[in-house]
Every structure is written in C-alpha cells, then in structure tokens.
Automatic annotation (TrEMBL):
It comes from the Eukaryota. Residues 220-311 form the CS domain. It comes from Pararge aegeria. PANTHER family: CHPADIPLOID STATE MAINTENANCE PROTEIN CHPA, CYSTEINE AND HISTIDINE-RICH DOMAIN-CONTAINING PROTEIN 1. This is Cysteine and histidine-rich domain-containing protein. Residues 305-337 are annotated as: Disordered. InterPro entries: CHORD_dom, CHRD1, CS_dom, HSP20-like_chaperone.
Length: 353
C-alpha cells in the first residue's frame, strides 16, 4: 500500500503506477494507447510492433506513448448477450443442392474418335535429328548411346564408352520425396526446399553405374502420368520422351480415353492407357498436345461439377484354363485282391502284380 493515502493507481495500459491526482500536470505516464493483441502464440500491442511469445515479457514491454496519468478505467469490451429465446426459434438448415448426373452414359464400347493432336515443332525436329553412334555395354547385350546419363538417382555421370563401367557410381538408392515444400531422398533424409539444391545432393551409397532402366514387360514402356481438373476441364499429362507422334494416337468417346504411345527406338514398344472416365466429356471441345517431354490431353467436361477420381476401375476377366481330361480310375470292385500280401513287420500293404 502506498504511504500517501492521496495516491491512486494509473489505469493506462502498461503503466500501473501510483500518482497524486492533485499533482498530475506533467507527461510522466509511459503507456500503450492501443489494445492487446494475441495471435498465433504472439502477444503484442496494436499501437506498436513489439511482440513476444512469453506472457511475462509481454507485460514488461515498455509503453510507446507518454502522457498524463489517468485513474479512469478503460471501457471493457461489450460481451455478446445470449438470446434467451434462441431455443424457441425455428432452425432453418440450408444445404447445397445435390446435383446428380444429367447426361446419360453411353456404353464403354461405343465408337471412339481420334483426337488430332497439336504436335510441337521441337518434337518434329527431334525426330529428324540423326541418331548418335552406339556402343555395346560391357555388362549386357543392350546398346548404350554415348552421352547416356546413369539411371541411378543422384548420379549424373555420362556414358563415354566401356571405360565408364570401371568408374564408381555415387547415388541415392532410395526414392525422391516431395512433401509440404520439402524435397529429400528416403535413404539419407537430407531435406531442402530448393529444387536445384536437391538435385545437386551427393549420393549416400556407392556401386556400379546403371545405363539402362529396369526392363518393363516385353513390348511395353513405363511412363509416369498424372491428372488435375479445373471447373471446365480435366487435364491428363503423360510424361514421355522419344515417342513417335505420327504412329501414336489418342482416342476418346464420351466416357472413354484410350491413349497409345509408340517408341521406335525401344523396339516399337508401347505405352497404353485405357480408362472409363468418371464423368461425361464433350468430344468436340476436347484437345491434345504432343510435346518433347509429355503428352497433354485436355478433356472438356460435359456437365459441371468436380470429379472425385479420374476413372472407374475396370476388372479384366480372368482367362479360364481348359480343363484337362482326368484319367479314369478303376473301380475298387475291379481290383484283384488275390495279389495283396500283408507285411506285418512294416504295417504296410504290398501289391504285387
């Protein structure tokens, strides 16, 4: 308690000192004229940019304004008054209208139309370039082009001839992961947000170079693909290189997408997808583009609404193997029991003919 009974407490925010109202003619009150702000674990004042995550430090933040003391309490914020008749009022529940499919789905086997894809000039130029000389790899029968980059993750060593097989390969045996802005390999967990830094990370394992990708089933090629959608279109991207745009095709009907890419440099191997689309599309307003690194298919939605998935899974009918004719077993009654000799020492039955 203050010794002088005439002293009163100052209610300016951030001050809290005692003063004599009769002697309050000087600007001695250092306080915050604004209101306290609490947001995202930070505590501060609206009048200045001083913030803190510790509540004690927040209370000790020095005021940003100097004026006279005041023993008048600041007005408290008004509290919301609960409506006493709220329970008696009628509750109106509003829901978004459920829009079902308006267009009829034709059969999956309906006739298809081949989309005329727009072929990029750079892709045509790549086809016209002369093929580079090839030499046989030392570890197999496949041919490896000069300048081919090692297929191990994180290794950028080019193939310069059989002598490249004797060099050490430093690579990442794991898989690349892109999650919430971070980029890293599952084998070493070195995380970064910069893509160039991620690509330049040195490998964590040593071994031999891999000049040829893991082989796919005979006559097929593995290509990565994904899709996204806008309010009006569904866009499918197939990431592929060195395919022939003139022998490849994209066929569609209102609920079907059939895409086939042909790779002549890999023995006319193909990549093919055949989907039953989740929604109905407008064929006349759909388009496709063939570029050196990918094929982009832009399908116009026939009706508004978002697709939960791209396609309906189709189960392939299992091929039934022909039943082999079973050998006719002789009836028990036709066995000549006179040839059966009991062997008591071994507890078995010996049949002699």
């Amino acid at each position: 308690m203050p010794e002088n009974k005439n002293l009163v407490i100052c209610y300016n925010r951030g001050c809290g000192q005692h003063f004599d109202p009769n002697i309050n003619d000087k600007d001695e009150c250092c306080h915050h004229p604004g209101a306290p702000v609490f947001h995202d674990a930070y505590k501060g004042w609206s009048c200045c940019n001083k913030k803190s995550v510790d509540f004690t430090e927040f209370l000790n933040i020095k005021g940003c304004t100097v004026s006279k003391h005041s023993n008048v309490k600041p007005p408290e914020p008004e509290k919301k008054v609960l409506d006493s008749e709220l329970e008696k009022k009628e509750v109106i529940e509003v829901r978004a209208p459920i829009v079902g499919p308006q267009l009829t789905r034709p059969p999956f086997e309906s006739p298809t139309v081949t989309l005329e894809a727009c072929i990029a000039d750079s892709l045509k130029e790549n086809l016209q370039k002369a093929s580079q000389p090839t030499v046989a790899a030392a570890d197999g029968n496949q041919l490896v082009k000069i300048g081919t980059i090692c297929k191990n993750g994180g290794c950028n060593t080019p193939y310069e001839g059989p002598e490249s097989n004797s060099t050490m390969c430093t690579y990442h045996p794991g898989c690349p992961v892109f999650h919430e802005g971070l980029k890293f390999w599952t084998c070493c967990q070195k995380r970064t947000t910069d893509f160039d830094t991620f690509l330049s990370q040195p490998g964590c394992t040593t071994g031999t170079h891999k000049w040829v990708k893991e082989s796919a089933p005979a006559g097929t090629v593995k290509c990565r693909w994904d899709w996204h959608q806008t309010p009006e279109y569904v866009i499918i991207s197939v990431y592929a290189k060195k395919y022939d745009p003139f022998t490849s095709y994209i066929k569609i009907n209102p609920i079907r997408l059939n895409t086939k890419l042909v790779f002549h440099e890999e023995g006319n191997a193909v990549f093919e997808i055949d989907f039953e689309l989740r929604g109905v599309i407008d064929i006349s307003k759909s388009s496709a583009s063939m570029m050196p690194s990918k094929v982009e298919i832009k399908l116009k939605k026939g009706e508004p609404g978002a697709w939960s998935k791209l396609d309906f899974p189709r189960k392939s009918e299992p091929q039934q193997e022909p039943q082999k004719p079973q050998d006719e077993q002789p009836d028990d009654d036709s066995v000549d029991l006179s040839t059966v000799e009991a062997i008591q020492s071994m507890g078995k039955v010996n049949v002699t003919g």
